[in-house]
Design brief:
Blueprint (H helix, E strand, L loop, with lengths): L12 H33 L3 H28 L3 H17 L4 H11 L3 H21 L1 H9 L6 H31 L1 H22 L6 H13 L12 H8 L4 E7 L4 E7 L2 E8 L2 E9 L9 H6 L11 E5 L5 H9 L4 E6 L2 H11 L7 E5 L2 H7 L4 E6 L14 H9 L1 E11 L3 H14 L4 E5 L9 E6 L5 H15 L5 H8 E2 L27 E3 L2
Parallel strand pairs: 5-6, 5-8, 6-7, 8-9
Antiparallel strand pairs: 1-2, 2-3, 3-4, 4-13, 9-11, 10-11, 10-12
Helix pairs in contact: 1-2, 1-4, 1-5, 1-6, 1-7, 1-8, 2-5, 2-6, 3-5, 3-6, 3-8, 4-5, 6-7, 7-8, 8-9, 15-16, 17-18
Length: 529
């Protein structure tokens, strides 16, 4: 008859230590996963109180079920192999989750209109299964560790205390360190691998003839399998694969409050353009087959700004387009935090829906006016990109001395700003002259070749002075450090423009900005048929 009495010390001391260690690990995994849950649900349901209530309730429900099931299974099958299997089941699920999490969340977002019910259903679908299995660990571990009734209380308290300590560490490390460092999906996979390491440790140390060298070798092999800490891409590759499979031609047309937006495809290139008075103005392009490409030549010149800061930690982009500049910079400087401000919410919607752009822990999409954002946020940036066009022109309040001075004031030490202009009559010379005044004549000009005799000019405004020779040296050093697809040293050497000796344009101010009457015709365009 099975009396439920614990076996008489069937396992070695090394196994007991491993059980306590894995209790710490499973506690950390559960709370880390709960924090990650908000990153999975927020894009569809927001990050408000309903989302967090759904996440917390789901985790508590899973732990509740896990405690009951773990206690029952421990009495029926008191085996280290079964204990390890519970950890392995939850861990394997986490390894696979990034492959289907978006589909699950979007399914409930579209099928359930109520945000409370939808977020709860999505949280249950994603989190209930793995947390239940991980929740089985503590009661099962206690059953295996108890040698007699005399130490039952101490064993139970120690297991739950260590597990809770792991939960505290998992919460803090995930939130403060890992999410900004490597992103949600990489962390989820890492948690799965970590759980499998614990599973292997339990199985090996359960043997009475344990050899420390075997354990060390096993741990080393498992840790080597951890994914490399690479920041999450700023685009969804599945969306781009879907767009690549679409036929050439117009993909979408969206009329917004600010723009008439078109998305079109030609071979591998997906283009975002605005239409104004019958003219098509191309704003951004993405190579669907090559995420490291920058199809529009002017955008390659914008990357020259990266050669000046000693370290690139924070970047601001004013004017999103399809996000090509942000995506490119992040591919080669993955640790950078990027804020992208776009006036037109419709452009953000198009960039996300058709170009696959997505927010991550290090990339924020902020709807709003660029100048208002700078006025309200005083945090400095290492690089500020200004590429803001409405239809065919730059809004007048983004081309005045006061605006350029505001950009200057929001730069960190050694910071730079890159402005995209069109060399069209008085507007160009007026802008260059005004930028030059704001940056105390510390500017560089670079021209692009957009084809058909058309070009853009990128003006770099610097806080530090730099001779041509010093700029060339910085470009070579930056290229060696970041390994950009388009060699910035070569761009500096081949695309530099001499500074005009006598700028005849007017100084543009908030009081006098004749942008409305200057011929500031837009970037590369064609007549819409």
């Amino acid at each position: 008859m099975n009396t439920g009495a614990p076996p008489d010390a069937p396992y070695n001391k090394g196994f007991a230590i491993s059980v306590y260690l894995v209790a710490f690990v499973t506690g950390a995994i559960v709370m880390s996963f709960e924090m990650l849950g908000s990153r999975y649900l927020a894009p569809a349901f927001g990050a408000g109180i309903y989302t967090w209530a759904s996440l917390i309730s789901t985790v508590l429900a899973a732990l509740c079920a896990g405690y009951f099931l773990g206690g029952y299974a421990a009495d029926r099958f008191p085996s280290p192999a079964v204990l390890a299997a519970t950890v392995a089941t939850g861990s394997i699920y986490m390894l696979l989750l990034p492959a289907f999490s978006d589909d699950i969340v979007q399914f409930f977002a579209f099928q359930i209109d109520d945000i409370k019910a939808g977020s709860l259903a999505a949280a249950m679908a994603i989190m209930l299964f793995p947390v239940t299995f991980l929740g089985m660990y503590s009661p099962f571990a206690i059953r295996l560790l108890i040698e007699s009734k005399k130490n039952a209380g101490a064993v139970s308290g120690t297991v739950y205390g260590i597990s809770t300590a792991g939960s505290i560490l998992g919460t803090l490390v995930t939130t403060f360190v890992l999410i900004p460092l490597i992103g949600t999906r990489a962390i989820t996979v890492s948690l799965g691998v970590l759980g499998l390491v614990g599973c292997a440790l339990l199985l090996v140390t359960a043997s009475r003839t344990i050899r420390p060298g075997v354990v060390a070798a096993l741990l080393a092999s498992q840790l080597a399998a951890l994914p490399q800490a690479r920041a999450e891409d700023l685009f969804d590759p599945q969306i781009r694969e879907t767009m690549l499979a679409r036929k050439d031609g117009r993909i979408a047309h969206l009329e917004t409050v600010y723009n008439d937006v078109f998305v079109s495809k030609e071979a591998n290139l997906l283009s975002l353009s605005f239409q104004w008075k019958g003219w098509r103005f191309y704003q951004s392009q993405a190579n669907l087959a090559d995420p490291d490409d920058l199809p529009m030549p002017y955008s390659r010149l914008m990357s020259i700004a990266a050669i000046f800061p000693q370290d690139i930690r924070r970047v601001l982009v004013l004017g999103l387009g399809a996000g090509s500049i942000a995506v490119y910079l992040h591919r080669f400087v993955p640790d950078v935090a990027i804020d992208a401000v776009e006036l037109d919410p419709g452009v953000i919607e198009v960039a996300q829906k058709y170009f696959g752009l997505r927010e991550t822990a290090s990339f924020r999409l902020i709807p709003g006016d660029g100048r208002m954002f700078l006025n309200r946020h005083s945090e400095p940036y290492d690089i500020i990109f200004v590429d803001a066009f409405t239809g065919s022109y730059i809004p007048f309040h983004l081309m005045t001395k006061e605006f350029y001075q505001l950009v200057h004031n929001r730069l960190s030490p050694h910071g730079v700003a890159a402005f995209n202009f069109l060399p069209a009559n008085d507007a160009f010379e007026s802008n260059v002259r005004t930028v030059s005044l704001a940056f105390d004549n510390n500017i560089d000009l670079f021209y692009s070749d957009e084809g058909k005799g058309e070009s853009n000019v990128v003006v770099i405004g610097r806080l530090d002075r730099s001779s041509e020779a010093e700029t060339s040296q910085k470009a070579a050093a930056a290229q060696a450090r970041y390994k950009f697809r388009f060699d910035v040293a070569k761009l500096v050497a081949e695309r530099r423009m001499p500074l005009p000796k006598d700028l005849k344009g007017k100084v543009l101010t908030d009081d006098f900005a004749a942008a409305d009457v200057l011929d500031a015709r837009g970037r590369r365009y064609r007549r819409e048929k």
